[in-house]
Structures are given as C-alpha cells and as structure tokens.
Amino acid sequence: MKRRDVLRWTGMASALAVAGCISDDDGTDDTSGEGDGSTPTAEPTSTPEPTSTPEPTSTTESSDDEGTGEEESGGENGASGEFDYTDPVETVKAFVTAWQDGNIETMNFLAAEDGNFGQVQEADVEEVSSQAPTIEEVETVDEGEESASVEALLVLPDAEVPRSGTFELVAVDGEWRIHDLLPTGQKIAPSVNFDPDVDDGTMTLTHTDGDAVPADELFVRGKGLDRTGVWYELSDELGENDDVKAGHSLTIAVENEYTVSVVWDNGEYSATLSSAGGASASESAGESPVENYLADANNYDGTVEDFTGQDSVTIETGVDEPDYAYDPPAIRIDQGTEVTWQWVGGGAHSVTHEDGEFDSEILDSEGAEFSHTFDESGTYLYYCKPHKALGMKGAVVVE
C-alpha cells in the first residue's frame, strides 16, 4: 500500500478535529442539496472473493457461511450481513464499523475506486484503524441516482466532543461506495473570485465572479494595509444588509510590503476566499503555489514570513493553537539557509516534502529536531504525514 493511501485513511477522520463543533441538540447543519430523492435501482452486486475472511455483501445476499465473518469482525457491529449497501446510511455505518475493527476486506470493498480512500494492506491496518471514529448520529442529507451525502456526528479517538462530518458516496452497480469524508462546512463556503489590483500605493479588491456574499460575512485582513475589517464598513457603496456581488469593489491603501486576505466568516464557519501579497508579483490570488497549497492550512493567514539574510531558521512543529500546525507555516529564505523544525508538543508529526527531497519520518518526542539546508532556489511544499488532511502543511520559498 502506498504511504499516501495510509495517510488518507488516518487523515480523513483527523480532518474533522479542526472542523467546527456542532450542537448535540442539532446534529447537522442545513447543507442539504437538491437530490431527486431516488435510490439506485439495480440489484446489489455480489462481492469479490476475499483472501481470508468472507467479503461483505448486502443483507439480501448473506449466507450461512458469513457467520464466521460476523464473529471475526465483531458480531453485530462488524457483521457484513447486518448492513444494506443500497442504503447510504447503512453503507456509512458498515464502513465506519469496518474501519474500527480493522476489517480490511470490508474497508477496501466499500471505498470507491476513484475516491480519496486508498486500499489498505495488512501491514497498515493498525495505523489506519487507530484513527477510526465512532458514530453518535447519522442521516442522509442528499440522495440522487449517482451520488449521496450522509452527515454524521463522529467522535474521534481521545476527543471530548463530537464533530460533524459529511460522507460523500457514489453509486456503483446499484450499491453505494464511500468516495470521501469532509468536515461539515467545508462544502458551504462561497465560491467566489476576487481580483486585487495594486497601483501607486492603493489596492482595489474587485469581486469578479462567483457567489454573492453577505457584506457582513466578508472580511479584509492582512498586514501593511491602512484599513482592515468587515467589508461593508470599508465600502462606500454597500451596507450591512447588502450582498457583495460581481462588480463590487473597495479600495484600501497598502505599503510596499503587504499581505491581504478576503475571508468569509458567518459566525460558525470561515474560509479564506482569496489572498495576495506584495513580496513578489507571483503571489497574487490564484497564482501562487504557496497560496494554493496552504489554502486549507492551519495557522496560515496569507503571510510568507521573511527570513532572508539569516543563516538559520527554526519552525515549531505541532503547536497547540491551532492544533496540528507549523509555526510559522510559510517562510522566505536565502539559498544555503538551514531550517530546523522543532517538536514542541508530544504528538506524532513529520516534515515531509511533497516531491521527496526531505523527510523527517514520524517523530513523537517533545524537543525532537529535524534540519534541512536549502541549497537551491524554488518553492518547497511540505506536510505532516499523519495530519495532512487536518491542514498541517507548510512552505519554504528559497530566493
């Protein structure tokens, strides 16, 4: 099994840890789509022959021989015959149960071939199952002929409160398969583009296309700006109850060195919609590989901290606020600079370059260190193996 496939499994559940906590009274947010309510009409297909334990089947196709599979996978909670794969909720329950039990056959069978869960091998099952959540509540919020969304209240290992996650499913031969697991709220951020135009010490931010966004949910943040805050207070044309739509813009003064982010925040969820910086022409919204890579990274506000002129730089690894982050997450250095990542918490983390040029492997001791000297210019993107899906990512820009 490829290492990235293992990380998908361990990271999918972990990604929920940074999602917003929802009320136990509520259970879900209003993120239902416009599915037609239909279910797949084809008969459930039989499953592939397993190599060791019986492969899971839908309820209608269970046999006496599957009793052994039930016993090995944990009785009622792990029995393949207890779940109907033509039902989205039942499929999710079967998937999570197999994840908890380390039932490789069921996990691999229910993971969509083109989805974000890789195939699990025997050697990786302990690491994968250690991150498995348990389900408190679950319901289908969107169901069509080809896809479905199931929202669940999930409790992660060692977590004190449940988190809301959305399982994305796809239809395969009349049954459902798990394509992805997302923190609830990740899908509901507006899709919008802002164009920053800088001229003679001023920046004009223009909504060029995409969704309309309430003016009281849109914020301008950054450094080297003469004004920051909620959009309607910075705008001369919009009020608190208006929407920011295509064509709307505002102008603020900027210094030579600046960073700016347009952030959506509705009080429950937030997301950075656009970022730009004045350090280089390439660091404009939608163009910078750093911005693209760190768009969902913890502790990143659009700033690439400048450490040029220094022989060495230290980055804290595993900082507590927010969880699973590097501090600072993005830095700019000269060629020949040595960067040292220092573990400041007790968690298991790594510093792993996307293209394999450096890798600390997973370390879990507070005070542990990993160093790398950057001899060539370029942009180096890296992540933590166990927590990439949580947003534990970083970047080093070498001049």
UniProtKB/TrEMBL annotation:
Residues 314-399 form the Blue (type 1) copper domain. GO terms for cellular component: membrane. PANTHER family: PLASTOCYANIN MAJOR ISOFORM, CHLOROPLASTIC-RELATED (PTHR34192). It comes from the Archaea. Residues 23-33, 62-74 have a biased composition (Acidic residues). The keyword Membrane applies. PROSITE patterns: COPPER_BLUE, PROKAR_LIPOPROTEIN. Residues 21-85 are annotated as: Disordered. It is found in: Membrane. It holds the Pfam family Copper-bind. SUPFAM superfamilies: Cupredoxins. The crystal structure with reduced Cu(1+) has also been determined. This is Halocyanin domain-containing protein. Residues 37-61 have a biased composition (Low complexity). Keywords: Copper, Electron transport, Membrane, Metal-binding, Transport. CDD domains: Halocyanin (cd04220). InterPro entries: BlueCu_1 (IPR000923), BlueCu_1_BS (IPR028871), Cupredoxin (IPR008972), Halocyanin (IPR017533), Plastocyanin (IPR002387). It comes from Halovenus rubra. GO terms for molecular function: metal ion binding. Its cofactor is Cu(2+). Cu cation binds at H349, C384, H387, M392.
